[in-house]
Amino acid sequence: MIKAIIFDFWGTVVENGTYSPLRQSYSILRPRMPFNNFVPIFEQAFMTQEFKEQADGFKAVCEALDVPAKPFVIDKLIGTWNKNRVFAKLFPETIEVLETLKKKHKLVLVSNCDNFTTQVIEKFELGKYFDAIVLSYKEGKLKTEGLFDCAVEELGVKKTDILVVGDSLETDVAGAEKAGLKAVLVDRKGRREHPQKIPTLKELPAYVEEL
Fold first, then answer.
1. How would you class 68 by CB atoms within 10 Å of its CB: exposed for 0-12, middle for 13-18, buried for 19 or more?
2. Which residues of the chain are modeled with pLDDT < 50?
3. What is the rounded distance in angstroms from the CA atom of residue 57 to the CA atom of residue 136?
4. How far is Cα 154 from Cα 10, in angstroms, rounded to an integer?
5. What is the residue range of 201's domain?
6. Does residue 133 share a domain with residue 76?
7. What is the pLDDT of residue 84?
8. With contact defined as beta carbons under 8 Å apart, do 187 and 208 qualify?
9. Which of 2, 131, 142, 166 is the most buried (most CB within 10 A)?
């Protein structure tokens, strides 16, 4: 029986305000590596510590990728990530689903994110729906490196009674499985292959009841 649900943030609860800022960052930085190798390096540099200014975070990213931190590159990155936050919006079903599930389950929000993402969390007043919010920049670790374990500690619930809900196979599903947790993929565009998946959050309450 599922007693607690861990939700991913971007792409699951909240829709990006612009086309994948990670892919845009990859195009801006042009590192000499495949995108799948780029993502964990970017996230480790930018999303596992707090920065006073975004520019400082992106300079750390450039250093980690061995890419020159040219001013126009930093400005482009800042513009991309600012646009993402400003135009971010909740998925249509998000609030209704959270309100429904909160009646019977503990809910936790988990995200690989920079400290500027808290602006979006506060904007939509998401704190009132979750028993805990676990963010990578605060914990100093990503989902695939133990962030889900931090969420489990917050919940105080057996791993067998927890379900992870996310839109990424590489971080949400892989990170959950590494932590010994069940996971369901939210595949809004129907492009990913996974035995346990739903098209939107609308189907989540019924899915949870069947587990």
1. exposed
2. none
3. 14
4. 21
5. 4-15+88-210
6. no
7. 97
8. no
9. 166
